[in-house]
Amino acid sequence: MSMAADMNVTLRLPTKTLFEGRADRLGAVAPNGAFGILPNHVDFVTAIVPSVLTLQLTDGSEEIFGLDEGLLVKKGNEVVVVALRGVRGNDLGTLQDTVKDSFIQMDEDERQARSALSRLEADMVRRFAELQRPLL
């Protein structure tokens, strides 16, 4: 069995792929605490809590992401992270503001979508009620 020099990491959101590339190290936070993954780490699956995920890329640079709850799957040299929401940050100092702004906007979009759905449901119920009225 050969030892892998790096890992292929993919970060997915419901609507897009946030990151796909090669990394030497990954750091994330599970419900039971922070952990790190190196290329030859044992395969496993864990939940991810809202936190910062860090990647050290093969070129030596570092990428940071603010993620909402999700799931991490490590199998072989493949790591896939899926999260409900996430943003890429330039540095830890600005990541908090980026997360706050993005997540607040997403919450507002979700609130508007739920409101529109409620109006559609109410209109459908009203139309069904009109169909049941006897004709005079």
From TrEMBL:
Establish whether keyword Transport is in the entry: yes
Ribosomal protein as a keyword of this entry, yes or no, is no
Q: Where in the cell is it found?
A: Cell membrane; Endomembrane system
- Domain named ATP synthase F1 complex delta/epsilon subunit N-terminal is located at 7-83
**A molecular function GO annotation:** proton-transporting ATP synthase activity, rotational mechanism
Sorted alphabetically, which CDD domains does this protein's record hold? Answer: F1-ATPase_delta
State the GO CC annotations: endomembrane system; plasma membrane; proton-transporting ATP synthase complex
Q: Which Gene3D superfamilies match?
A: F0F1 ATP synthase delta/epsilon subunit, N-terminal
Q: How does it sit in the membrane?
A: Peripheral membrane protein
> Primary place of residence?
membrane
Which controlled-vocabulary keywords does the entry list? ATP synthesis, Cell membrane, CF(1), Hydrogen ion transport, Ion transport, Membrane, Transport
Query: What assembly does the database describe for this protein?
Result: F-type ATPases have 2 components, CF(1) - the catalytic core - and CF(0) - the membrane proton channel. CF(1) has five subunits: alpha(3), beta(3), gamma(1), delta(1), epsilon(1). CF(0) has three main subunits: a, b and c.
The similarity comment for this entry is:
Belongs to the ATPase epsilon chain family.
Protein name from the UniProt record: ATP synthase epsilon chain
The species this protein belongs to is: Pacificibacter marinus
User: What high-level taxonomic lineage is stated for the organism?
Assistant: Bacteria, Pseudomonadati, Pseudomonadota, Alphaproteobacteria, Rhodobacterales
